[in-house]
Structures are given as C-alpha cells and as structure tokens.
Specification:
elongated; alpha+beta
C-alpha cells in the first residue's frame, strides 16, 4: 500500500465508533489493499532457526520492541491533571466526588476495607489526600499505564517488500540473515485452525487481523484510552464494574488498541510494515504455524550458515529458495537457486 492508501486506512480506523463491530470491521477491511506476498526478516540465531524448521511465527509483546515509541500511549497529562483537579476546585465538587465514590462502593460485590471507604467517601478526608499530593500520585500511575498496555499487546510484523534494504540491515543482521516469504493467496500453507490442538486456541477462535502500519509525526491521542484502563484497574481492585456513566464519558474504546498499535513515526515509513495482532488476551508463548512460500538468503550470509538454513528450509517444506545478489544495475535483487515441485 502506498502512503495515500495507508492514510485512508488510518482515517477510517480513527472514524470507527465501535457500536457495530462487524460493520466497523467490514468498513476497515475495504480500505486494506493486501499485497500478494509478505516478508519477514530474520537473523541467524538458534530461536529463529528453530522457528524456521517448525514453521512457527511467534508473537512479540510490544514492550520488547526495539523502538520505545512503538505502541506508545501518547497521554495528554496536563488534560488529565486539569480534569482531576476540577474535582477539588471547590467544596461543592469535593462533596460531589465523595458522594459518587460512596455510590460506587455501595455497588461493590465485596465490601472494600473500612479505612479505604472512609478515605474516599468522606469529603474532609478526600480534601486532605489532595493537599498531601494525591494529584501527582494519580498522574504517576497514569504514566505507568504505558507499559501495562504494551505488555498486553501481541503482534507479528511483516514487510511488503522482500528487497527492503533498511530491513535487511536492521533485522537480518546487515544482510547476514534471511527473509521468509509468505503467500497471502495460499491457504494450504496456513496451518492454524486445521489441527486438533487448535480447538481451544485464542488465535483460532478470535483471529489475528492483518493490518498495514500508518506513518505520521502527528501522534494519536490515547488519553481517553488511558483513563479507561485506569478505571478498569481501579474497579478491578475494588471488585466492581466500571459505572456506565464513566464508560459513556470515555467514549467507545473498542478500537483503541489498534489505534495505538498501528501508527509509527514517519521516519519509519521505509519499513513498509504490516502487523498481525492477536484478537484476544492470551498467555505466552503465543505462536501460529504458517509455511513460507519461499526464503531469501542474505547477501553476506557465509557458506556454513547458508547450508544450514537451506537444509532447515527444506525440512520445513519450503519450496523456493532464493539467493540475494547485486544486479547489473547496482540494485539489490534475488534469483531462484532451488525449487521443489509437487
């Protein structure tokens, strides 16, 4: 997809209201122009070689990405500060807050400790908490949410270009690794959902949507998402549900995880990235089985590692093996050195 198509996809994603998930998904998929092939760049390591041999794609948690700004929650902390401090701007607001907290506590499935109830439902105690630095403590917890969101976001990254010089450098150890080729039109090579062990798998039951990345220097404002997650954590600790009026205030957050995951700074646009995201919360290790259509050997791969990778690729059932070259026009290319016919 070119930059204009990715922008169209992103604008559609940001416009989804979340009231009709099925219709939202249809609208979003209509904006996706899938390539024929996707590529995954790999270094020659034990884990990558084992994944090659077994046709496994392992999902990574966002807090392990090399880019600290990938799946980063841009939070308007001053906006949250202003909203929080409004609750303490006058005696009337403090009493209103105490009354709301009391109402929430009365709906608890399990009664919270009496000391906690006294702190948050008594106007004078709330006022003392505020005077003793409650705002900074609250904001500190809000910023800590970034890692909470990242560690629960799992994905596999691809590129739509098998001759991407940037990614050969970054993820294939300066051309010493290899690139796996996945054919989106070959359903037979996709093994997930076709085995007995798949019946209770979250990937099989909830899917792994594949989306293009969008690149922009204008970050996505995830403030409402952060506030919602804070509410989730707080009410979970109190063993209650988030009150509906609070949910309504946050707005629909159904597509927030996709919005925070599928945008990166414009300096990364040459990655030509696509991302497959898990559709539900799962316990690691999270993986899927997909036989690559082919493999490209790196330009600088030594002979010993080249022989090893070729041997493992054949074991894995990969039919086409390519070797990287610099062609007569001084450009990166690849030519077929082995093909198995069925």
């Amino acid at each position: 997809m070119d930059s204009k198509q990715r922008k169209d996809f992103w604008d559609t994603l940001c416009s989804l209201e979340g009231y009709d998930i099925q219709n939202d998904s249809k609208l979003l998929m209509n904006k996706v122009v899938f390539p024929h092939y996707l590529y995954r760049y790999r270094d020659v390591t034990f884990n990558n070689l084992e994944a090659l041999r077994t046709n496994r794609l392992y999902f990574s948690s966002a807090n392990y990405y090399d880019d600290p700004f990938d799946t980063f929650l841009h939070i308007d902390i001053e906006k949250i500060r202003a909203e929080f401090e409004t609750n303490f701007s006058c005696e009337e607001n403090i009493y209103r807050l105490a009354s709301a907290m009391k109402s929430i506590i009365e709906n608890c499935n399990v009664q919270p400790p009496a000391e906690f109830v006294s702190l948050v439902s008594n106007p004078q105690n709330l006022k003392k908490l505020y005077q003793n630095g409650l705002t900074n403590e609250f904001l500190s917890n809000a910023l800590k949410l970034r890692n909470e969101i990242r560690k629960d976001t799992w994905s596999v990254c691809f590129c739509e270009n098998g001759l991407n010089e940037t990614l050969w450098l970054k993820y294939a150890n300066q051309y010493k690794g290899f690139a796996l080729i996945y054919d989106l039109g070959n359903a037979e090579n996709f093994h997930c959902g076709k085995m007995d062990k798949c019946k209770n798998c979250g990937i099989f039951n909830y899917g792994t949507p594949l989306y293009p990345m969008y690149y922009s220097d204008e970050p996505y404002d995830a403030t409402n998402f952060a506030k919602y997650i804070m509410g989730q954590i707080a009410t979970k600790q109190m063993n209650i549900e988030i009150p509906q009026f609070i949910i309504n205030e946050f707005g629909k957050i159904v597509w927030e995880r996709e919005r925070t995951t599928l945008i990166k700074k414009k300096c990364h646009q040459y990655d030509e990235e696509w991302r497959m995201i898990t559709g539900c919360q799962m316990n690691p290790p999270i993986m899927m089985e997909w036989i690559p259509d082919g493999i490209i050997l790196g330009l600088r791969m030594n002979q010993t590692e080249e022989n090893l990778v070729i041997s493992l690729a054949k074991q894995a059932g990969i039919k086409k093996i390519y070797k990287s070259i610099i062609d007569k026009n001084n450009k990166l290319d690849a030519y077929l050195i082995h093909e198995e016919h069925t």
